[in-house]
Specification:
This protein is of the alpha/beta class. Helices cover about 30% and strands about 25% of the residues. The protein has an eight-stranded mixed β-sheet, with helices on both faces.
Length: about 650
């Protein structure tokens, strides 16, 4: 993958080209990409814009990213921007040791390097998000071919670093397919810079609408190329019209979030660290799933690359990369997860799933024989990064931010008049007014929308779960992984294990039930054979009600009123209308939802909250366009129309 010259310059084996200048790679980066895009001047200026976004082709050693980060640190205190977004593509990601060796040539970057390498793990094909909250910085690192993944990017960018290997070595990264996507993703007056002045590159970028200039290059390079996109930004062209985004520079002064569980706390935190004042309303529902102790998380691998597996893999890496910044070591543990195959999870599906997703052993390892601690011939899969989380501790930590104002009370209805939302109590007393409203109050979302429109654009199901809190005196059991079959069992923490859970959509009895306790313990004692069950005692029990959608994917994003949606999009799925252009329908202004997280709330809430903040504040999305279509709240309205046609 990488070789080293005698002077320490890294060289790509794949492309037989250097990663950066042997004279001084950092100075070259500053000259070509930072000065070429006039970043210091732009980042130090006043602006009404919220975020400054950079897109790079060719992450390589990360040198350009570190240089931009260092510059942002120097400019942040005087910048009108609140956030810097750095999106980069890399087909052949380097190992941590190679990045460390390459960047160690520049001691001034050592602190940033260590902060990055702490999070540089669990990479999957597609988008991998790295959030540096204290730095007001987000890196979206796309692993794979830029030609494949650029069409999946949603957002507008202010600067482009075109830093692939030389056009003669890697022509695919400099062709018309790439320049067309750069045009689609450009903000007005977006800039670009590149080390090459190859005629083919100039022609592609000129045809894409950039006004180009040659300026002096760095070192042995006599010239380099810069450009500006002076035209109006292209409108979003998502083939599904209601998924298109409209971009605005308006930044809300205040956002109200209903619900202080995982969903509400995650979106509140995502907005708060960006400098937005957030008012969170909490009605203290004791049964909400966000009260679950030691909730377990791991990927859900399907036979092929389905939205379920792609979403959970992205959420896994994102959560673990953030936990060290958010939680103490007592509040979570990456203990690994052993998941057993069975009737609902056939061994063949696991085998094909690991292969289809090209998963490394860092993410998943097949176990065709699990050994004596399980029934004979039991097979399974080991997820080294499976983890458990103290859910109340996570929720509390997310809400612990000076920009979050926690309010007590239940919101009974909402209304929108004169460009603002009013929240009412159950007896119609006004509680608060707000510019932007996010509904994240679990099974309360539907009733509020029904009160607003007399129908809801989606349905949410309530699911009851019971689990057992066990006392395990065996100190060695703290080293156990999480066991998952039809039921799950956590490792011991201070002598306490959690054993669960039941899944009941029909009987929502909030009280503990003896038959559920018997069901959980009977299965666990027959399946998890490595434990001394005679010494393990039930300490207490917990019942929670979680909210989930029919397809078990969250609802995340803006909301459409059902009646106009039907009028505009009826017939969209008919063959006769396959060439018909359907217009973009504006969603309800300044109304968003985040809910239906189901049993994967701990795993998916952090990334979901960030994505909703990105939608609300017009940032590039930390997720593929195609995957976001599986999360959009209006997918159910669209499916209903299609099923009736």
């Amino acid at each position: 993958m990488i070789d080293w010259k005698e002077n320490g310059t890294p060289v790509s084996r794949e492309f037989d080209d250097i990663y950066f200048s042997p004279e001084n790679g950092l100075e070259e980066t500053k000259h070509v990409f930072l000065k070429g895009n006039k970043l210091e001047e732009r980042l130090s200026s006043t602006t009404t814009r919220h975020a400054f976004s950079i897109l790079e082709l060719g992450f390589g050693t990360g040198l350009n990213f570190f240089a931009a980060w260092q510059l942002w640190r120097n400019c942040k205190s005087k910048s009108g921007y609140r956030v810097i977004r750095f999106t980069s593509f890399e087909k052949y990601p380097l190992e941590s040791d190679d990045i460390r060796k390459a960047i160690s040539a520049f001691p001034e970057l050592s602190e940033l390097l260590e902060l990055f390498l702490e999070k540089y793990k669990l990479l999957v094909p597609g988008c991998n998000t790295f959030l540096f909250e204290k730095e007001n910085l987000v890196l979206d690192l796309w692993i794979g071919d830029a030609i494949q993944y650029l069409p999946e990017v949603s957002g507008k960018f202010d600067a482009f670093f075109l830093d692939g290997f030389a056009p003669s070595k890697n022509p695919e990264l400099w062709g018309e397919n790439i320049s067309t996507q750069i045009k689609r993703l450009s903000n007005q007056n977006a800039s670009l810079a590149t080390f090459t002045v190859a005629r083919s590159v100039k022609d592609c970028l000129s045809n894409a609408g950039f006004t180009l200039s040659k300026i002096p290059g760095y070192g042995r390079k006599r010239e380099m190329l810069i450009g500006v996109y002076e035209s109006e930004p292209e409108p979003d062209v998502n083939p599904i019209p209601f998924l298109r985004r409209k971009y605005s520079d308006q930044i809300p002064k205040k956002v109200s979030v209903l619900g202080a569980g995982l969903a509400g706390a995650s979106i509140a935190r995502a907005l708060a660290w960006r400098g937005i004042i957030v008012e969170v309303w909490d009605d203290h529902n004791a049964l909400r799933a966000s009260s679950v102790p030691m909730a377990v998380s791991h990927p859900h691998i399907t036979k092929g690359e389905t939205p379920t597996s792609l979403w959970t893999l992205r959420c896994l890496g994102n959560s673990i990369r953030r936990y060290s910044d958010l939680l103490s070591k007592d509040s979570y543990q990456i203990s690994g997860t052993v998941q057993l195959s069975g009737e609902d999870l056939p061994w063949a599906r696991l085998e094909e799933g690991v292969k289809a997703h090209s998963l490394s052993k860092e993410l998943a390892e097949l176990k065709p024989e699990l050994g004596k601690n399980f029934p004979e011939h039991t097979k399974g899969i080991f997820y080294p990064s499976g983890f458990w989380t103290d859910t109340p501790a996570l929720t509390q930590k997310l809400l612990d931010h000076p920009n979050i104002l926690l309010k007590q009370g239940k919101v009974g209805s909402i209304s929108f008049e004169k460009e603002e939302w009013t929240l009412f109590s159950g007896i119609k007393e006004p509680l608060s007014k707000t510019e932007v409203l996010v509904l994240a109050n679990s099974f309360g979302i539907e009733s509020l929308l029904q009160g607003l429109w007399e129908e809801s654009p989606f349905s949410l199901r309530s699911v009851r779960g019971q689990l057992e809190i066990l006392e395990d005196p065996n100190i060695e059991s703290e080293k156990d992984p999480i066991y998952v079959g039809e039921k799950y069992l956590t490792p011991s923490k201070n002598g306490i294990r959690v054993n669960g859970s039941t899944f009941d959509e029909f009987d929502l009895d909030p009280n503990v039930r003896a038959k559920d306790k018997e069901e959980i313990l009977e299965y666990s004692q027959k399946t998890f054979l490595g434990l001394d069950w005679e010494r393990i005692k039930v300490r207490s029990e917990f019942v929670g009600i979680r909210s989930q959608t029919p397809d078990r994917f969250p609802i995340l994003g803006p909301v459409h009123s059902p009646e106009p949606f039907r009028k505009i999009y009826s017939g969209m799925g008919l063959h006769k209308n396959r060439k018909k252009e359907f217009p973009f329908l504006e969603p309800q202004k300044n109304l968003f939802v985040f809910g239906g997280l189901g049993s994967r709330g701990v795993l998916t809430s952090l990334l979901g909250g960030e994505i909703l903040a990105e939608i609300l504040l017009n940032e590039p999305l930390s997720i593929e366009n195609s995957l976001y279509s599986s999360l959009h709240p209006s997918r159910f309205l669209y499916r209903k129309i299609r099923n009736q046609e």
